[in-house]
Amino acid sequence: MLAAHLFTTIAVEGSAAMSTVAVPSLPPTASEDAESLRKALQGWRADKASLIGILCRRTASQRAAIRRAYAFLYREPLLNCFRYKLSRHHLLSVDFWKALILWTMDPAERDANLVHEAVKKKDEIYILVLIEVSCASTPDHLMAVRDIYRKLFSCSIEEDVASSPALQEPLKKMLVSLVSSYRYAGEHVDMDVAKLEAAQLSEAIREKQLQRDEVVRIISTRSKSQLRATFQQYKEDHGTDIGEDINGQCSSQFGRMLKSAVWCLTSPEKHFAQVIRYSILGLGTYEDLLTRVIVSRAEIDMKQIKQEYKARYKSAVTLDVAGDTSFGYRDMLLALVGSED
Amino acid sequence: MLAAHLFTTIAVEGSAAMSTVAVPSLPPTASEDAESLRKALQGWRADKASLIGILCRRTASQRAAIRRAYAFLYREPLLNCFRYKLSRHHLLSVDFWKALILWTMDPAERDANLVHEAVKKKDEIYILVLIEVSCASTPDHLMAVRDIYRKLFSCSIEEDVASSPALQEPLKKMLVSLVSSYRYAGEHVDMDVAKLEAAQLSEAIREKQLQRDEVVRIISTRSKSQLRATFQQYKEDHGTDIGEDINGQCSSQFGRMLKSAVWCLTSPEKHFAQVIRYSILGLGTYEDLLTRVIVSRAEIDMKQIKQEYKARYKSAVTLDVAGDTSFGYRDMLLALVGSED
């Protein structure tokens, strides 16, 4: 174990200050890392501690360089080696290998795969994947996901969502609009629009008419800055949080999904803290759900999610994860989530 | 005038074999071109023949290099010099300078500007801009237009279309879906889907129910290859062209715009030949319309458009353009359209 002072969270992408991935200030070269991974993969059990010690302490771009170096040195993709291990290992290790594969993938490719797996399913935990990828990502990341999805699956995300027999109207209409968006990503806000649209949303909530075209249009086309101003205006007008009001007044599936979209767009830490809690409190643990959240948010806003989790559930993510998962898989999640302050 | 053998149409972007821009096989460097342009811009009248002789014989990437070289050499953007000329010249030259500015711009930026100008207007010739940019472009070009639009105008295209008071439902719904699409761009086709959706479209046409969700979903999410197969299936089932049938059976504005979308998606030459004809036959000439089509299609499929025009109207684009436009502007359009074979 390296001394703590060797680790420092460095700027990666997006809100890197909120990353919990502890990258050493002087990491080995990508080729050295690839060689260490090759050694760690030898033998029937593989050296999970080494795999975690390397990959879970590297940024997305460092992991990309390691993938390239590995393919160059050993003439096979690193991910294929992981998939081979996954296919041959006993049940206890499945979650570990699945998480390691998702973490090692290019983030846009990972999300494209998660969306593809989710798009034909009815279950809300899969519908949430569509909402998370379309609303809790930056617009440019969503666009990268859409691009690679087309290349991997020979059709567009919006095409698959719009033609999915598993999804019903009016939810389908909202999901198609959300995954099709390419929002303005700057800070410019129009306060007149915020006032008008806060009132429109308020009327729809009070009349329990969330599926109105206006609601879907506002949520799926306005920029995150604009929506933040609109929701703030709503709070000033009513003294309550719009997400909580949607939840409280409209208990339909559409209402729950709309609330998730609202949170993913403007306070994703609330959404993801709730999903982590749900995945741990569930009968057993929803490992896929827990993996998805931790792998996809570790480099984005995991620090905020941990703070939100603590404030809301009076417990720590690390504590709850450690108590509810098994060796190997647990160590990997804990490496990504980082220590509690 | 340089000898014809010096000109050869070289590969640019998209379907470059259908470009009518005659690029010299050994063009001057970008800096030399920038110097020649500087000289041509001197004096009150400017040397239009030189401006045309240089810029209308360069590909989009060569024009980009010239813009960079000009800005580096003279510390001002080439386009600003053109805009200054436009602002000071008498009426006769307005069309020339406007066309030269559009041609010299980066194509994605040009389309973003055209969309922005069109989006708040009711007139069909402006609604057509939205359809042309969203349906007659490659998916990646549309994405580049959406990206630059956000940067230039601090909001997204779909946001402006969805909130435009000039557009009515159900047309607005279709336009929002069209501009939001990021279609699969490959050749993969599902023939079962083609058969099913040809039947769905046929039913909507016969029942004069074009605004159905199914119709908008098919037109706005399916890939161009898939739509080509679907429309071919329609032709085999009914012996008629789906575009003509939409036009014949449903004479509403929605029907006309849907037909334009269908043509832009799978046989853009038909659409643009018709628009050129309309712009010339109109009272006077719709110069903005004519400029837009020629400038935006010269490097894409102008050869095909000319063939279609000849087959359909028993006249040549060059002849009709020459007969209906004035000096300077005419020379520029003719340089872009190329000679008749």
List the helices and strands and how they pair.
2 copies of one chain form a homodimer.
Chain A lengths: L29 H12 L6 H8 L4 H15 L3 H11 L5 H11 L2 H12 L5 H12 L3 H15 L3 H6 L8 H10 L10 H16 L6 H9 L2 H15 L3 H8 L3 H14 L1 H14 L5 H11 L4 H12 L3 H8 L4 H9 L4
Protein name (chains A, B): Annexin
Family (chains A, B): Belongs to the annexin family.
GO biological process, one term (chains A, B): response to cold
Q: What's this entry about, in short?
A:
2 copies of one chain form a homodimer. Helix content of chain A is 67%, strand content 0%.
Strand content of chain A: under 5%
**Greatest contact pair?**
A-B, 30 and 30 residues
The chain-level mean pLDDT of chain A equals 90
CATH fold category name of the largest domain in chain A? Annexin V, domain 1
Estimated structural class of chain A = mainly alpha
Overall morphology of chain A: globular
Number of helices of chain A: 20
Structural notes for this entry:
2 copies of one chain form a homodimer. With 341 residues, chain A is mostly helical. The first copy, chain A, has 4 domains: 4-105, Orthogonal Bundle (Annexin V, domain 1); 106-182, Annexin V, domain 1 (Orthogonal Bundle), CATH 1.10.220; 186-266, Annexin (Annexin V, domain 1), CATH 1.10.220; 269-337, Annexin (Annexin V, domain 1), CATH 1.10.220. Helices cover 67% and strands 0% of the residues of chain A. Chain A contains 20 helices and no strands. Chain A has helices at residues 30-41, 48-55, 60-74, 78-88, 94-104, 107-118, 124-135, 139-153, 157-162, 171-180, 191-206, 213-221, 224-238, 242-249, 253-266, 268-281, 287-297, 302-313, 317-324, 329-337. In chain A, helix 15 (253-266) crosses helix 16. The model of chain A is unreliable at 1-14 (pLDDT under 50). The interface between A and B is medium-sized, with 30 and 30 residues.
